[in-house]
Write a sequence for this structure.
């Protein structure tokens, strides 16, 4: 994800610099050149905002997905623990019953 954002930022920066240099060497009036530079900067700014927004959306989706997966895993873990706890209690109750029976034989 970080590589993609860095690549997009580098491409946008390169395009903006190239456009700026091209505009500066063009044979236009200064006012037209400044307007073109401003327009190029506005386009670059809009592109950067769109890229950041798209990156933000992707991150939001990934975090939401990860949270849902974590919630599901946590629920499964609690459920498994509950079943294991019941098994342990049942086992201990049967051992306790065996010990009570052995104790009753010894007390006779």
């Amino acid at each position: 994800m970080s590589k993609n954002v860095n690549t997009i930022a580098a491409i946008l920066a390169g395009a903006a610099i190239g456009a700026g240099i091209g505009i500066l060497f063009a044979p236009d009036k200064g006012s037209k050149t400044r307007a073109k530079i401003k327009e190029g900067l506005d386009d670059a700014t809009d592109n950067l905002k769109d890229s950041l927004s798209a990156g933000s959306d992707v991150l939001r989706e990934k975090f939401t997905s990860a949270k849902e997966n974590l919630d599901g895993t946590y629920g499964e873990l609690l459920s498994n623990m509950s079943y294991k706890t019941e098994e342990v209690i049942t086992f201990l109750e049967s051992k306790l019953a065996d010990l009570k029976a052995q104790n009753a034989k010894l007390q006779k």
